[in-house]
Amino acid sequence: AGLGEFRIRDLNDEINKLLREKGHWEYRIKELGGPDYARIGPKMLDHEGKEVPGNRGYKYFGAAKDLPGVRELFEKEPLPPPRKTRAELMKDIDAEYYGYRDEDDGILEPLEQEHEKKVIAEAVEKWKMEREARLARGEEEEEENIYAVNDDESDEEGGKEREGEEDQQKFIAHVPVPTQQEIEEALVRRKKMELLQKYASETLLAQSEEAKTLLGL
User: Fold this and answer.
1) What Rg do the C-alpha atoms of the chain give, in angstroms?
2) How many angstroms separate the CA atoms of 19 and 50, rounded?
3) Greatest CA separation found in the chain?
4) d(CA 132, CA 139)
5) Averaged confidence pLDDT in the chain
6) Separation between Cα atoms, residue 67 and residue 184, nearest integer Å
7) Using one digit for the tens of pLDDT, what is the confidence trace for 80-124?
8) What's the rounded Cα separation, in Å, for the pair 73 and 65?
9) Cβ pair 60, 68 in contact under 8 A
């Protein structure tokens, strides 16, 4: 490690160059029918008995493993934290999680009131400026009477019929309206039908319907 970073890199490069040459010779021996030393040969181990680490065929020996940027290549990524189950997540959810207790601390409400006053003051100031601008242009402004009652609006008392008024509102009926006599006749027919259904037997009802059919009623 005392040789310095550049000297260590040079030595490590030289070792890898010799290893590549050794690999070429092993491949040539295999081509000539000899043993496959790349497969049956002993593995390269460091002084701790561990296999020499490498990246894409490039090996790092001795102090080269501790060079800047090299150590990070072989550091194992930490395992991700275990995921919580749905029950564990729901255990910490309460009313405060949904914001229902934001005003309990007494901080939010005064801030909202202060902001509300500021917004109202800005709106009033904007209205005053627009009003002064209209008056400066000579435009007459008609004040809106907020107490005026719209003719189209009516309350419960105004909606009731008032007898004895001279200017009663006239209505135009767009559908045929039955007369009082027609209404009374319809009620009598309905009453007869109710009595027949209540006291008459099914045979009489059938005969009555047959008679009406024959008479064309």
Assistant:
1) 51
2) 18
3) 130
4) 10
5) 76
6) 111
7) 888 888 888 888 888 777 777 777 777 878 888 899 999 999 999
8) 9
9) no
